[in-house]
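Why does residue order matter? Because the sequence determines the fold. Keep that principle in mind as you read this record.
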Amino acid sequence: MSDFKLKDLLNKIAKKYNCKIWINKKIGKRISFIEKAGNEYYLPPEVLYEDSEYIIFCENIHSKDDEYLRKLLLEVIKYARNAEKNSKR
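Structure:
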């Protein structure tokens, strides 16, 4: 489901917070990679967002409680859901 708008949103987060970020779709007990942005830091990934369908991981994030970050993460999830819905048509 790689898409320019999704990549753009993730790049925006990666540049602002100097981190690596990626989104995955949950499929049962497994997760399927969708898109990523940012440089590799070789640090343990942290979960920034998780719901029943999606999970967003990040490396090298220091401002997890930032309101602007939460807003961007919700945009990423909203866009991923819409892109998935549109691809099934």
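The helical segments are 4-17, 67-87.
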